[in-house]
Amino acid sequence: MNNKILISILLIINLSISGWAQNKYTIDVSNTSIPLEKGHLKMGNPGPQGKEIEVNNLFMTIGGRAVLPVMGEMHFSRMKPDQWEDCILKMKTAGINIISTYLFWNHHEEIEGQFVWNNDKDLRSFIQLCQSHDMFVYPRIGPWSHGEARNGGTPDWILRKKNIQNRSNDIVYQKYVERYFKEIATQLNGLYYKDGGNIIGIQLENEYWYAKKGEPHIQWLKDTAKKYGMDVPLYTVTGWGGGSVPPLEVIPLWGGYADEPWIESVHKNVLPFYFRFDSFRDSKHIGNDQIDHKEEYMTYERYPYFTCEMGVGIPQMYHRRPVLSPIDGYAMMIAKLGSGSNLLGYYVFAGGTNPRGELHSNEEEQEETGYWSRTPVKSYDFQAAIKESGELSPSYHQVKKLHYFINDFGEKLAPMLPTLAKTNDDDLQLAVRSDKTSGYLFGLNYCRYVPKPERKDVLFSVQLDGEIIQFPQSGVNIPDSTVFIWPVNLNIGEALLKYATAQPLCMADDTYIFFQNKTITPELAFDNSAVADIHISKGTVWRKGSMIIVSDIKPGKDCLITLTLTNGKQQKLIVLTEEEATNSWLLERNGKKEFYVSKANMYAKHGDILAFSSERSIVVGELQDGRFTERVYTTESIDSRLSLTERPVFAGAKWLETANFKNLPAYQERYHRFFFKEFSLDNPSGFRKVTLYIYPETAGKLSVNYNWVRQDLVPDQLNAIDITGYVSKGENMLFVDFPYIEGKARFAARVIAEYSNYDRVEFSTDESWLTTDMYTNPSATRVYNRPEKPIVVEAPDFAKMVKHPSFGEWDIELPYGSLEGLSALYSHISYIGDRAEIYNGHILCWDDFNFNTPWQIGWQRMTPPMNGKNLRLVIYPLSKETKMFFDVMPGADEYEMTQVKSMNTTGENCFTIK
Q1: pLDDT score of 7 more than 50
Q2: CATH superfamily of 806-913
Q3: In this model, does residue 4 exceed pLDDT 50?
Q4: DSSP H/E element including 335
Q5: Phi and psi dihedrals of 130, rounded to 5?
């Protein structure tokens, strides 16, 4: 044999991956091996006998059986309690089985010594509600949590103390943390897994980037938690950035995000390493202001590869406004799963709204706290799978497909080890997880911001222990933005599926369900030793050697493959389109799994199957005995009756007469007309800004609390006077001075007081602005006659045109009964501007940094309730001078202005599926 040919053959056999003619990939998994180690991790009570939760160096087990959990984060204190159940059920329907939740210390002890554990802070009720729906809970107790919360959740009163070292083993800090942990333990008492409850783990601290130096503090936190009864199967910390890990005492968890809105840059940010298979767990691209460690801190071979912060979305930051694709999180999760991760943890899976603070707002901000980023005051939408509004985002439907697969196939997948293809970033990304005799081929032809070429005529060869499986029979084309998981030697009941170029979705009704990836034509091959015959409604069946191959498959709900086994039994498979898989729902009713396909959203609740849609009529297909039965459900349409009206600055103000004189007598030529307004500012929070907006037709002067404001009132224009430094808590006195003039004149005014907790109160000119005419100025040291009722005059024609360039306002009217007959009411607002706010009375309910995509609002989530209220929408203009990054750029003419482009409102109907 020619030596060159011999060398080529040897290279092909021994390389773990190679490209043949640039379209064939070979992956050798026959020698993949990692010794299983168990019993070395110092965790807590594993739970009841036969149901023990334990962890080895690779995966988790429950009752000795391998599991691959899916964990999603929602924050109970960022959501109304009456919305918790809806969110829990949407998470459960998506295939989530563990709900993680941050505890923010300043949500529970904003004022020193005053703990709050009720209403939206009711941790215990939230955990019990999760248990009623068979969901595990994983509290992340801090005490520092971050979560884009103020001070990372640390109360201001801790940070104001001079004799304390925050986040350390300082004795003063320890005593406060110990008191806080004791409070948490009181709420958790009796709810631990060991007690028959659903709390299976505790995360200590967060992003504690002190490597070896920080280990004693993490150990102290764990010991203190256990001291007060927090005895759980799992103790974890975040591992990235040199996270401190006392050896074998806690498990480090990992994460990743498709963009970094916290970085200083305002340019496009490409992160290709999140879209490839890699055994490296750490990342320098989570969080900000990380401590730089010059040497490698530790290795992690003795710990399982678990994640807790994988994002289908990212938080909004003022200077960076990226918009993620629905596939970003899905592709990242498949990259982690293919790389060996055995717990997929999302942060956050459900968006929320920051609660109102008594003394200050609760978002991460820069001016008062000096923190790194500026986030919306209220919104914690996060572009999450479940939106702040309660709506399901497109990413929800993408990752749901992955979770269904993990839940049904995870027991076999969890012990499988990864073999990673050593391709460059430009090539098709590949990995195989296997037990040497079977496995799954993972593929990624996607990277955010980086278009990928279509891979032409691709073939695969997987070297197992004792056999090579090559597939498909002819090359397939893999388009850009394709991600896939294809099985190799998968047991389908008593049959053996040698390979499939379709992705397993789940099992239901004794049927294995697969789906097509993009436009790739599915092909399935079965070992003929157990299969006598195959019938397919849409495809071709043929034999090759020891395989029966099903090709030319046309996916769809009617694409049924029936295997007749050699023992006479039958096994059914269905191959759906990718769109049908995206619209699929795997639900449980009375202990039995039921499978549906519908464009409506669905979940199971207390034995009922419910569907939700803004449409009057929906189609639901149910899988029964291998075939879909479709039923149409209809309901009456309901008018939402929501309206939006632009509001001038002085819409609520009366115009008051300042002059109506002709032929003034000499003794009155130096007289003045004074207008007095007494007002109270009793909010417990401090002032953020207090502004007087006034439109006078003559010149005048202003006094607040008998201190003259040294800014003239310019006639015939809107004046915005900052009076923050003049007002005080409690009672205040404002008066305006207008010298007498010949002729007629009038004015209107409005005061807006904004507090540090973002409450906002206002008042405008009306009959309570009393008036008197005097020669001398009013003074706190002299007595003057009590002012009298002012003269109200007709508003000028231009009053409706008076606007201020720094904001625009609209009234939103929500009549009583707006939600009657609906499960939810949603509005999508498209607007021109930098950011927007919605107030319900004096309380800021929602806000938004404009991404130039519609702002999604769920009115059922408003606090306080919205029924019968006139709400206020405020929009602030975007300056051309502000340095920002946008994925979706504003129009060239959309700067320095505010405008509502559209507001589309839809009611969501609920259907009970029979």
Answers
A1: no
A2: Galactose-binding domain-like (2.60.120.260)
A3: no
A4: helix 326-338
A5: -60, -45
